[in-house]
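Lecture 7 notes: from sequence to structure.
We start with the chain below.
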Amino acid sequence: MADHEDPKNKIIKLMGEAESKQEEPRRPRKQNVVKKTVVNGDGNVVGNGNTVIKTEKVVHKTIARPQPGEENITEEQVRRLHDLKDQIIILEQAAKRDPATPQRIWSALNKKMRVGSMRMIPLGKFKAAEKYMLEWIGQLMDRPAAQKNAPDTVRRRRIAYIQTNMKKLDIEPLVRAYMSEKCSASSLADLDLTCLEKVYRYVASKKSA
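Predicted structure tokens for the same chain:
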């Protein structure tokens, strides 16, 4: 006959077995970790999730500087173009309802010369730049509104043109004879604007010929 175990001892024994059968600690589940590099804006912020590094965007610009008298036009030539620009402004205001501003004049000249600024005009292209400005002036002076609203400017420009080309073309005797025949005058100073225009056209025709 088997001995009956004391119920109290049996309970104690069962409790001991339960304590001995401890479960192994659960291992944490692996998480998918993705390292991410973040570039924000212009590359100013870079991070890997834990560390953030702020960087500066470096932009290198090459600035061309004029070399007057060596590669680019001289200061004297710059002054000449400024003087022509001032004359254009006067005539633009006299001849047009929407006259060109200094900025528009320089922009047009720079575009014609294919440069970023007037002072960057190559030394060998000054004559071309001057011619462009003089042609602009000539076109404006042909307008009746300019002759009416800025007669002094037109007069000075016409006389300067006539005098320069009389000497350059060696045609002064011919011009004087033309003035005497068409305007009954021997001096440019004695000519009114209408006669001055006639003499100017005469000299211009000799130049083009």
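Points to note: The first strand starts at residue 38 and ends at 40. The chain is about 55% helix and 5% strand.
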